Automatic annotation (TrEMBL):
Pathway: Carbohydrate degradation; glycolysis; D-glyceraldehyde 3-phosphate and glycerone phosphate from D-glucose: step 3/4
Domain Phosphofructokinase residue range list: 7-303
Activity control note: Non-allosteric.
Pfam families noted in UniProt: PFK
Names of the cofactor(s): Mg(2+)
Reaction it catalyzes: beta-D-fructose 6-phosphate + diphosphate = beta-D-fructose 1,6-bisphosphate + phosphate + H(+)
Gene, per the UniProt record: pfp
First and last residue of the signal peptide: none
Organism this protein belongs to: Catenibacterium faecis
Name of the protein described by the UniProt record: Pyrophosphate--fructose 6-phosphate 1-phosphotransferase
Residues flagged as site, Important for catalytic activity and substrate specificity: 115
Amino acid sequence: MNTKNCFIGQSGGPTVAINASLAGVITQCQEEGFTHIYGMVNGIQGLLEDHFMDLGTTFNSEEKIDALKHSPAMYLGSCRYKLPTVSDDKDTYDLLFKKFNDLEITDFFYIGGNDSMDTVAKLAAYGETINSPIHFIGIPKTIDNDLMGTDHTPGFGSAAKYVASSMLEIAYDSSIYKLDAITIVEIMGRNAGWLTAASALARTECNDAPDLIYLPEVVFDKERFLKDIEEKFKEKSSIMIAVSEGIHDENGNFLDSGDSQQYDAFGHPIHFGTGKVLENICKEHFGCKVRSIELNVLQRCAMHIASKVDIDESFFIGKKAVETALADHTNVMMGVKRTSNDPYTAECIYSNVQDIANLEQKVPAEWITKEGNDITQELYDYLYPLIQGEIAITYKNGIPSYIDIAHLKEN
């Protein structure tokens, strides 16, 4: 039997489900008899610095795999390293492939979002030019749900469940006083409003909030925004608003942009203060009690409110990624194809990663109301199955007991 060795990495922002995908890859590799299952610590950047570990020896029991599957964030750590193009820095590729050859790597799995798929695409393309036999497989994750090639992304369902649950709890908190008040909840979503749309899942027979929802797919108009609130005040005294951090005007200017606009390593604008900007606008116009709440990173790693559908799918996709590599496929990203909405069923697929990297899947216009301040029933029906089911969390001393990540603090 030919020796099989692989590298696994995680990159980008953390989620509740990315470790479940990692657990799935490790489990399937063990079942397939891989000799070494190497984990890059801090992604491709860590690999360049020779920082990796043998996951096969670390996760040598079902109990340890289960603990990994039910721990949030990223066991292997992450990076925001943008792999240069071959024309700009061929030496980096020569160094990486030398490491692959020295360790007899047969398969490369990278778990991440858009920018991580860019890394997979570049490595796969270079590997093809030198006739490398290594299989390069992308495994999706992102709470933003903005990856092409998949019905939805692992990590999104759990973040959506957190957003909906938080919105419901805030609604109960805001309902106790009979006075005019506005509560603005800022939710992650740079260019795609999927997570903000999930706030609508908080609506129950006892709660109709959020009253207004604003997504980055719709041009934000300040005067229309104030008019929308005025109309809602005719119906009730306490107004709740869900807003994406990336809302922008007709010229593409973000609401929170200014002279101090900051950008990450991939050139994406870093948002902060969208909710606060709207809070000040509302205070000046309405003169009532206004508060803004920024969920920020809280919506990313809340394993205590994770979606079972999300965790189970993420683990399954990790396993299928290994099967796909062993079937001699490369240069692909795994994905989910929904086969039924009610009851919800789905299957695992894969697509050419070159057609996915650096592209974004946004909320379709037809899933947003014509007024631009709410979502349609079709979008609600799309979201609803993804937040179903709960995970049994192990607690110790009153708080969740997660896997040890001491190795991430060593460097």
